[in-house]
Design a protein that fits this description.
The complex is a heterodimer of chains A (about 300) and B (about 290).
Chain A: E1 7-20, E2 26-39, E3 43-47, H1 54-61, E4 69-74, E5 77-78, H2 85-94, E6 95-98, H3 102-105, H4 114-122, H5 130-140, H6 145-148, H7 158-172, E7 176-180, H8 188-205, E8 208-213, H9 216-222, E9 225-230, E10 233-239, H10 240-245, H11 250-258, H12 276-287, E11 293-297, E12 300-303
Parallel strand pairs in A: 3-8, 3-9, 6-7, 7-8
Antiparallel strand pairs in A: 1-2, 1-4, 4-5, 9-10, 10-12, 11-12
Helix pairs in contact in A: 5-7
Chain B: H1 2-8, H2 10-17, H3 19-41, H4 72-107, H5 112-126, H6 129-139, H7 145-156, H8 158-172, H9 175-182, H10 187-223, H11 234-243, H12 252-280
Classes of the chains: A alpha/beta (about 300), B mainly alpha (about 290).
Chain lengths: ~300, ~290
């Protein structure tokens, strides 16, 4: 990739194969040969359908699972070599995540405040007054601290829980934030607010965000770079504007066609066949055999064949 | 002070103020008191000739007498003691084996170790319990309380193992465990706060259920004549009643009273279990 970039993390040839069963194992390739750089203060959206391997990439970066192949370089070191306790803690001090399902992210036996207590217990966070800092972070994500702190997770809505997690991430002021389907549970009005907040703190603190989503509009709204994933492969990568305006891979093209626009109504005559894309991709790879991953213009690369 | 204590032990507070738990505990306490102090109140030995046979309950013989003149109250409270003891021992053994196998299999979920343990468990699950128990019991010539407990426990653990395994597997993959991991808290604390605490109430309830189940299984065996070769138990009292045609002779007190006590005890334990479920799970608490 081009020089003069402030790369905080570099993902190189990341592959994850899941094995299930002992006697008759089945292998699932969740991610294959994924490479990209994460730049300081930039938002990258990782776009793809369910099962395309987006979440797997997020979990690999968070060290929740180990890669089958490939490296993730942070601070000049492959993170799978980080084994020591103190070093792991330093890593998590700078790299954090927000998970997909806010209900599952809270231990149901504890009050929601626990997510803040945990980070204050583990990390030396630079705040004079812990409670005040938490309250401010909650106000930032448009939550009323008096109505949320001290509650049990089941007493709050998915959107409130998700905003609590965003507040937690903001309090930590990290280098890299993995945001998995971050605002899927928020309603339209809070959504923009939270997105803007994310972009602001991104620019202000130089935080890099990997925004995992299936929503193309959101991806365009928020991100500097876009990565399109299809069946565990990175099929298109580059500057968001270029990828959106000049979508080259047949899967990406299909995605853009599939987005309904405001003012557009369902049309019974128009046939839309998502199955068609499988065939299209196959033909596309055959036509361009042996080309591999090619940079078609500056800051825009496309996977032309999967071999 | 008191307020602080309850704030810290919130679960206990919810458990002890739950109506079902209070109801169940009261009955269970009563039955335990009966087992503990009954034999002291009783004026006879359980196999002693206590007077005329065929007597209905009276102030002299609280639960009447058997056909051969033994005191049913004495036999029942003594039998209750040994039945509770067998239930407690067998329940503990079954819970312990089930939890260990289940937790280990779940923790190493997906490995060959897990597969082997589950194969063993499945073999025990499909084995016809009662038939196996009859065979084992028939082979052992001398059967005391403890032997009874071991026999019953050996077939009671498999479902606990399966349930605990799946519980461990699902807890291990919860996103709040991931959140704790990326919050960099220690493995010990994750095991304690995220896994064990979500499991504790479950294990506690499993124990109550095992206590119930093993007690019933013991009584069943005893009723079939495969009980302890010495001593007395609830099942033996009932078996005697049936062998001597107690019911046909209209001696309801002989078989019905011990049976009723067992039924009430088991019902009360179920009440405690459902009540505790609500107390331990914030989602089921009435707000």
């Amino acid at each position: 990739m081009a020089k003069n970039k402030d790369v905080v993390m570099s993902v190189q040839g990341l592959t994850k194969v899941f094995k299930s069963g002992i006697l008759n194992p089945e292998y699932t390739v969740a991610a294959k040969d994924i490479s990209f750089d994460i730049e300081k203060g930039k938002i990258i959206s990782l776009i793809g359908e369910s099962g395309s391997g987006k979440t797997t990439v997020g979990k690999l970066i968070l060290k929740l699972i180990n890669p089958s192949e490939g490296k993730i370089i942070y601070n000049g070191k492959d993170i799978s070599e980080i084994k020591e306790k103190e070093e792991t803690k330093q890593y998590y001090r700078r790299v954090q995540g927000i998970f997909q399902d806010p209900f599952a992210t809270f231990n149901p036996l504890y009050r929601v405040d626990r997510v803040f207590d945990l980070i204050f217990d583990s990390f030396d966070l630079d705040y004079e007054d812990k409670d005040q800092a938490i309250r401010e972070a909650l106000f930032d994500v448009n939550l009323n601290p008096d109505r949320t702190l001290g509650k049990f997770p089941h007493q709050l809505s998915g959107g409130q829980l998700q905003r609590l997690l965003i507040a937690r991430a903001l309090l930590m002021d990290v280098d890299v934030l993995i945001a998995d389907e971050l605002i899927s549970m928020l309603d339209a009005s809070t959504r923009i607010g939270v997105l803007n907040l994310l972009v602001e703190s991104c620019k202000k603190h130089g935080m890099a965000v990997i925004f995992i989503t299936h929503d193309l509009n959101l991806g365009y709204y928020i991100s500097d770079h876009s990565l399109i994933m299809y069946k565990g492969r990175l099929v298109e990568r580059g500057d968001t504007k270029k990828v959106y305006e000049n979508a080259t891979h047949p899967y990406t093209q299909m995605l853009f066609e599939a987005v309904p626009e405001i003012g557009e109504r369902w049309d019974p005559d128009e046939e839309f066949l998502p199955e068609q894309v499988v065939q299209d991709v196959k033909e596309f790879y055959q036509e361009n055999q042996g080309k591999g991953f090619v940079e078609i213009e500056e800051e825009h690369s496309v996977l032309f064949s999967d071999k | 002070m008191a307020k602080d204590f309850w704030a810290k032990h919130e679960n206990l507070y919810y458990a002890l103020t739950n109506k079902k738990v209070i109801f169940g505990l009261t009955i269970v306490a009563f039955v335990f008191l009966l087992a503990a102090f009954g034999p002291m109140i009783a004026q006879y030995e359980y196999d002693e000739y206590a007077g005329q046979g065929y007597l209905p309950p009276s102030s002299e013989h609280f639960f009447g007498t058997t056909i051969d003149g033994k005191d049913v109250f004495t036999r029942t409270v003594n039998g209750l003691r040994s039945t509770l003891l067998v239930g407690a021992i067998a329940g503990s053994i079954a819970t312990l084996i089930g939890c260990i196998i289940g937790f280990v299999a779940g923790y190493y979920g997906g490995t060959i170790f897990d597969e082997l343990l589950m194969m063993l468990t499945n073999i025990f699950v499909v084995m016809p319990q009662l038939a196996l128990l009859i065979v084992i019991a028939a082979f052992l010539e001398v059967r005391g309380t403890f032997v009874m407990a071991v026999i019953v426990a050996s077939t009671a653990w498999p479902w606990t193992a399966r349930a605990v395994r799946s519980q461990t597997l699902s807890l291990k993959n919860q996103e709040y465990v991931s959140l704790s991991r990326i919050s960099s808290i220690s493995v010990g604390r994750i095991l304690r706060e995220d896994i064990a605490s979500n499991m504790f109430s479950y294990v506690f309830m499993v124990f109550i259920q095992q206590f119930n189940g093993t007690m019933l299984a013991t009584v069943q065996l005893e009723f079939l004549g495969l009980g302890p070769t010495k001593g007395i138990s609830l099942g033996l009292v009932m078996q005697n009643a049936v062998n001597w045609n107690g019911i046909q002779l209209g001696m309801w007190w002989w078989a019905i009273i011990p049976g009723l006590i067992l039924t009430i005890l088991i019902t009360a334990l179920y009440f405690i279990n459902t009540g505790l479920d609500a107390a331990f799970n914030p989602r089921l608490r009435e707000m």
